[in-house]
Amino acid sequence: MPDGLTASLEKMRDAHLPDLAIDTFRHYYERLSAGETGMLPESDIEPVGDLVDAEDLPEGGEEALDRTVIVKLNGGLGTSMGMTRAKSLLEVKEGLTFLDITVRQALELRKRHDARLPLVLMNSFATRDDTLAALAGYDDLEVDVPLDFLQGRVPKIRTDDLQPVDWPDNPRQEWAPPGHGDIYTALVTSGTLEALLDAGYEYAFVSNSDNLGAVLDPRMVVWFAAEELPFAMEVTERTEADKKGGHLARRRDDGRLVLRETAQTPDEDLDSLQDTSRHRWMNTNNLWINLHALREALDERDGVLGLPMIVNRKTVDPGDKSTPEVFQLETAMGAAIGVFERAAAIRVPRRRFAPVKTTEDLLGVRSDAYLLTEAFHVQLAPERDGPPVIDLDSDYFKLMRDFDARFPAGAPSLVECERLTVEGDVAFGRDVVVRGTVKVTQEGDEQLKIEDGAVLEG
């Protein structure tokens, strides 16, 4: 049997993957086999202090907008919510999907600022066909660069012998996406980076397709261009709810900014990771990239940026824990902040970080606690200071098919709701109103039906 690296590279060549993608995978496999864990201990970093506040940036000077591209990460299937197609095709507000809202935001910005502002999606092999079919209805969307490029894929590696996993029952499950850090490789291998530069684009605003708060802010384009920065990350203040997630830090040995994820934190440093008064800033995954600087960095490193490795331990079939354990070798695109010498971070309000990761998030956004503006911004209703806290019983609401079955007439009114907790099997009728703090509990196997027009007050 060939060694695991040789077998993995042969598998990738047989799948006709680009040489640069194969070289990048080799880089991370060799680090894995050498015993590297990707850990970033507290002793190697220090906290980051005050930052430029995006709310204080001046208006005007928008000529850089015509040299800017909007890139959305669109490779996710929403599998944690039971979905099997592009998550961005999920209806989210007033009959519009994430993708509809994103497209209309871009078209509105173009009209308002008289700029090209192309929208380019990074799709995965699982989301591309459905997404492009949905975009076919927007005749005026594509400008002078392609609408999408394709994220790569890498073999899943068995944890017992570091061989690429073989799974004849479902060969698609032998492959994994290499994390959104693959954007830099995919921009090159798809030809998109050169196409953008050839068309005169210099700056990219990159964000997740499920984060409806991530709307391009012209003031930040102006700031990024005027400061001649190679890379910038939008960060927001961490709260208690974020303490188990990653944070921004500064590397002691060279002073560069770095992103530390939970998976990169040794157990003995978890208390420091969770200290939100020490490590104040979390990555929103809204990034600004100077495309010329990116090409230079890639050329200097033979196409491999060498981002910190994230080793995810899963089973080959994520839905069946009895299947063999595998490593998925991933990187985070925000980790590129450590590659660029003059990379910066900018403080943004929490509203720019509003991803929909669960059906609870989705219920809040679908409700009247959020409004869709004329510019297609999804934002909190003016009478609210923050989103309602929603806790739905995962046995009955976690998956979309179960969630939709229990809200057949749509979301209840939550504009006056502080907290909604649902325990057990509960279905909501039409025009239900929830006010204050409400807990609905149903014990036993029979479903509780909340009648049409009911007002629930705690």
Q: Please name the fourth-level CATH homologous superfamily of the largest domain.
A: Spore Coat Polysaccharide Biosynthesis Protein SpsA, Chain A
Strand order of the largest sheet: 2-18-12-15-11-3-6-7
Which structural class matches the secondary elements? alpha/beta
Rg, rounded, reads 23 Å
What name is given to the CATH topology of the largest domain? Answer: Spore Coat Polysaccharide Biosynthesis Protein SpsA, Chain A
CATH classification, class level of the largest domain: Alpha Beta
C-alpha end-to-end distance = 65 Å
Number of beta-strand segments: 26
Report the sheet with the most strands, covering strand number, pairing sense and barrel closure: 8 strands, mixed
Principal-axis shape equals: globular
Instruction: Give the domain tally.
Output: 2
Report on the structure:
- This protein is α/β, with parallel strands linked by helices and 458 residues long.
- It has two domains: 4-352, Spore Coat Polysaccharide Biosynthesis Protein SpsA, Chain A (Alpha-Beta Complex); 359-457, Hexapeptide repeat proteins (UDP N-Acetylglucosamine Acyltransferase, domain 1), CATH 2.160.10.
- Helices cover 23% and strands 26% of the residues.
- The protein contains twelve helices and 26 strands.
- The strands form eight sheets. It has an eight-stranded mixed β-sheet with strand order 2-18-12-15-11-3-6-7, with helices on both faces. The chain has a four-stranded parallel β-sheet with strand order 21-22-24-26.
- A hairpin with a 5-residue loop joins strand 13 (247-251) and strand 14 (257-260).
- The longest helix has 16 residues, at 98-113.
- The mean pLDDT is 94.
